[in-house]
Specification:
- By secondary structure, the chain is of the alpha+beta class.
- About 15% of the residues lie in helices and about 30% in strands.
- It contains five helices and 13 strands.
- The chain has helices at about 10-20, 70, 105-110, 155-160, 190-205; strands spanning about 5, 25, 35-45, 50-55, 60-65, 85-90, 90-95, 110-115, 140-150, 165-170, 175, 185-190, 215-225.
- The strands form four sheets. A five-stranded mixed beta sheet has the order 1-6-9-13-2. A three-stranded antiparallel beta sheet has the order 3-4-5, with no helix packed on it.
- It is globular.
- It starts with a strand and ends in a 9-residue tail after the last strand.
Length: about 230
Amino acid sequence: MTDRPILFSAPMVRALLDGRKTQTRRVIDFPGIEKVLEFVSVATDQQGRRVYEMKDAAGEFVTRPAGKHFAEYQFWPKYAVGDRLWVREAWAPLDALTHSDPGVQALADRGFYRADDSTVEGEISRWRPGIHMPRWASRLTLNVTDVRVQRVQVIGEADAVAEGAIVPSKTGPHYTALDAPFGKRRVGTSAYNLFRQVWNDINAARGFGWEANPWVVAVTFAVERRNIDQVRP
């Protein structure tokens, strides 16, 4: 079991808080990944290193130990069942407040979270990017229950909903893509198709669009609304 930080945008933090998000997909990228046709298995060698077997374009099996040469790429899942992930998000410490009344919740949290929209313009002098959030400031812990390596297009309807950006309608057989980037809001009858569009909004510009069908690590988790170092009640 390993504790690791994981970064989420404000819309995805809201989905975690609402209980809508129990999966995340992260692109796997390393030199030569385009030659891989099939992921086969993960094992552990005698030194305790992860060994990843995959089938390349020539139909041969290739073994890639996570040793010195390949570790720098972090090319394969750094997540495993049993890991705990502490969520990083945009935030501000109490001393970033421009007046002297932070409120009860902020005092309890020892800061402010941008995803909450609990402040108005000008109240916070400077928001800190989530990448710089310290462990003590995290308020969400994700307990990893499943890890899969697959192409992004393998995702099904249920998994698309579990990603948190696609919400089933309460009044009819359709879905809404909430909090999509760039202010877009979409409605459709297929969670799969809506996820495809949201995926492209986020990833196409950096070369990992839907048509490229990149390899991803699909992580399933249970969400706990507490700091990773806080004792369970």
